[in-house]
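The data are quoted verbatim for completeness:
=====
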Amino acid sequence: MQDEMPGSHLADVFARVQSLMLAVGSLTSLLNELVHTAASVVPDTSCGITVQREGEATTVASSDDRARSIDETQYSMSEGPCLHSLHTGELVAMDDLDTETRWPGYVERARRQGLRSSLSLPLTLGAGPFGAMNLYSFAAPHSFTPERRRELELVAAQAAGALRLADQRLHDDEVRGHLEQALDSRGVIDQALGIIMAQQRCTSTVAFDLLRRQSQSTHRRLREVAIDLIVHVTGEAPQAGKRFEA
């Protein structure tokens, strides 16, 4: 049996993940750090993270080519512990591939690739699983002892938390982009309305109706018509609206 992981080592793992959650701007960099951190828990182990995108399982990060190859074997055969964990949200341990009876086609090919044991841990986002962290041992059967398994479950929980945060940041960035685009459009249209009101000596409602009619008659977006009017009158492109700040 392998020696216990020192408490300081495990604490360092959590500290690294926590710092990544706060500091890493690139999701790719974050995932790469996570798989290498998880792989370091058990000697001669590879790690991959699988997520589901548009119904297809995809490896988004791997500690080395061995992990990616084992993942791809499961995808090509549509079976294996990684996919089972991804779809059911269950932890799947394969302690010894020489005696494993589940997924025989996958097991045979994985054994030829040198795999001796594996552990697949579900990653949950909201109500259900969205991915799995897969640990592959090429050293010996029973590499994932109960102690190691508990430690890796904690690492997987940290990984899921980091991915939830990354997902929220991506969502926030998307929302912020839409808001900035809306503010820019609103600012351009307001500038055009001001020009029309001055030229026609009319209200903002009448000015907007005139701008809208021009948009419909030329089959162009309102913002494009507004930009053309501003450039025609001022000789300059419209000023961008104020950036949205969270």
User: Anything to note?
Assistant: The longest strand covers residues 128-137. The helical segments are 7-23, 27-39, 65-77, 81-88, 104-112, 146-200, 204-218, 222-234. Residues 1-6, 241-246 have pLDDT under 50 and may be disordered.
